[in-house]
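DEPOSITED CHAIN:
***
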Amino acid sequence: MRPVLSAVYHGTRESVGTALAGAESAGALLAVVQAALQQVEESVNGVRRESGVVTACAVGCSFCCWLNIDVLAHEVLLLAAYVKAHRTPWEVEELAAAAVGRRDERAGLDHGQRQRVRKPCLLLDDAVCSVYPVRPGACRRYWSGDLEACHAMWEDPEVTASVEFPLLQETGRAAAAGVHHALVRAGYDGCYYDLPSALAEALTDPGCLERWCGGEKVFSEGAETRTPEGFRQAEALERLRRELGTGME
């Protein structure tokens, strides 16, 4: 890892780990999560400003919101808490039903098939993110330099293009890894999940937040991210836990 990226990673991991140690209630823990996601965003934006990179992203451009993203349990729980605080009970039920429907549509798809699905994020409202202050880390670190390429990928899932800036992408990954590893090291669920599937459970099962606070696996196996053939997420997570327990460089 390059020195700058290493500094971003270790600095983020240390600050988030310290904040987690001082948080006792579920609300305080979710506040740490929100601040940690903001730290990821600020790390990327700082490099973006200093490098003078000109991005193509703008308010109302939601091409990337049709892409599938991997999310962590704490990100989904933060989304669920925000939705419940800012929507009526009926609207929450409506969103939960939509998430269940999206989950059921994707249930039989393998990794490759799921990656080719193009449907708008359930949290979009007129092409604008309705949960912007608490959006997942993957959304915060994505910057495109080619709007036409984004459009092409949006229209045809078989089209692939490199639209991100390598320096911003690497910085975002380093910061996001710092957050993820701080939470795993502190004993929280480090599994990656499918957003609609996990959101369906977070909005309908009040035990999700309690399990997360207790250091348990939050969502069902069916909500886990589909991985390529031969890759086992549980095994990778166990290796990560061992490495973090002895100090990961």
